[in-house]
Amino acid sequence: MKVLLTGGAGFMGSNMIRFLLNKYDHAQVVNVDKLTYAGNLDNLKDIVGHPRYTFVKGDIADEATVENVFRQHRPEVVLNYAAETHVDRSILDPKAFIMTDVVGTFTLLEAARQHGVKRFVQISTDEVFGSTADGQFTEATAFDPSSPYSASKAGADHLVRAYWRTYRTPTVVTHSCNFFGPYEYPEKLIPLFITNLLEGKKVPVYGDGRQVREWIYVPDHCRAVDAVMTAGQPGEVYNIGTGERLANIDVTRKILTILELSENMIDYVPDRPGHDLRYAIDSTKLRNELGWAPTRSFDQGLASTVRWYRENEWWWRKIKKGEYLEYYRQQYGRKT
Length: 336
Ligand code: NAD
Ligand code: TYD
Fold this sequence. Notes:
binds thymidine-5'-diphosphate; 336 residues; UDP-galactose 4-epimerase, domain 1; 12 helices; 7-stranded parallel β-sheet; Rossmann fold; alpha/beta; 43% helix; 12 strands
């Protein structure tokens, strides 16, 4: 099985490469990654030199790069993880989101159509559905994105669905709740808060912290994408969710408890513009049709994640020294 996995130097892509190489003796993985601020070859340190792994530094929105990869490696499966992914960055600077998430996905789809692939899996988010006060998003819920990030992902997902309807390119889309676990760039809620606290810094809770997110731990997400890749039906859409829905303030309190710190470490800061109040995803289809179910609770995943960040300071300290600080100064006008 020849897999082209894009964005494999990022958080979830790197975890998935490790999963695929471990699970399938016959899997060959080509990772195309632009190495943006979020792409980090340290995430793949243990994979470098693996006989079934190839890295190509490149932009998925660049036709020539994508064409060369398809010609040279003849992928049967495309797993499109590459994206600009952080909502706050999309608010400050949306252009890169359009270029990668929309144009990049389009460029991959065109190559997949022209060269023929057995499966094109688009790794997408529940954020395309907008916010729901008390309901759950199903696969049929209409897109209603709030941020430039979710609007870009929604644009890409429309194209992915259209390529099946128009050209019969065998695409599948996954809409997942929030991931968390090892190698997540410390700008997202969970890794930012854990690393700030390990550094003795406060954690910036947006608004009143009552916004709700649904959470999935890394290995369960890898298993879900594997199920969709191998058994998902072309043209179909699968929601990935655990039912574990928590207010941000409760996630924050759980992290504080694990680290034996008090609520004095919370800094309530101005809310994110257009902040979605609640995400909740109905994953019945994935469970009933593909037999998937999560194996770890949020609490188990969080304890393992805190342990990983504690044991891998070398990984995140390097990142926090760099461009990251400038970004947070710009956003909050202060040092974090
Ligand atoms: P990430 O930000 O950690 O990594 C993104 C990777 O994509 C980086 O390695 C980056 O270098 C690469 N990249 C960016 N632009 C590129 C381009 N033009 N060409 C090639 N590579 C490029 O992302 P993540 O959190 O691991 O998310 C992976 C995917 O999952 C994304 O598509 C995201 O929309 C989706 N998703 C994420 C979450 C979440 O909670 N993080 C939830 C649902 C869906
Ligand atoms: P985030 O991890 O950025 O993921 P997403 O916005 O894609 O869901 O944020 C998760 C939630 O945490 C979201 O409601 C915003 C909130 N949040 C904070 O309160 N403070 C922070 O510093 C960050 C990064 C997020």
